[in-house]
Design goal:
The protein is α/β, with parallel strands linked by helices and 190 residues long. β3 and β4 form a beta hairpin.
Length: 190
């Protein structure tokens, strides 16, 4: 059995692209900020905690946990949760770069297997006017997305470029790495 340890509809949609049968389960992990950890380690810590929490209940399953931590000018970019906070984040990111660390942990407790990796994606925002930010927020309402944008939607228009090894990482689940990990654990993928 394959389990995605997430309640994210974005991660669920991404994993479904691989054509594998899977279920999702919310991991119930405390995601409070851990300022003592650098961003990549925080993402990795949370991905591991999510996978481990679900794997304990399903030791015979393969469990995928993932987390994403974003930084812009040394500050965390969280899910904004509101139009006001989204507006603030996009103003902060205007004409700047943001780095997104997307960590994945794939675990099979029964076989004592654990594979982990972190993908790093850098987003270059163009200079955004207040009017452009307002139009974007009105059109997409990305309150539940780290950084306050959806790159798979209209949010792509906010950037001058994206530098990544895996275009799905920015959405929340780097499928190139996930596919590699699943193949290592015996899953048949093209």
């Amino acid at each position: 059995m394959l389990i995605l340890a997430s309640s994210s509809p974005y991660r669920r949609a991404l994993l479904s692209r691989l054509g594998l049968s899977f279920v999702t389960e919310a991991p119930g992990v405390d995601e409070s900020p851990t300022p003592e950890l650098p961003a990549p380690e925080r993402a990795q810590h949370l991905a591991l905690a999510k996978a481990a929490a679900v794997a304990r209940s399903h030791p015979h399953a393969t469990v995928i946990g993932s987390d994403q931590v974003a930084l812009c000018k040394g500050e965390l970019l969280e899910k904004p949760g509101s139009a006001e906070r989204c507006r603030e984040q996009l103003r902060w990111a205007s004409a700047a770069t943001a780095t997104f660390y997307t960590a994945v942990s794939v675990q099979q407790l029964e076989r004592a297997q654990a594979l982990q990796f972190v993908d790093c994606t850098t987003v270059y925002f163009r200079a955004l006017s207040d009017a452009e930010i307002e139009r974007y927020i009105e059109a997409e309402q990305p309150w539940d997305c780290a950084g306050g944008f959806r790159c798979e939607g209209l949010g792509i228009s906010l950037f001058t470029r994206i530098v990544t090894e895996d275009p799905t990482a920015l959405i929340g689940l780097p499928l190139i790495g996930v596919s590699r990990a699943l193949r290592q654990l015996g899953y048949e993928l093209p």
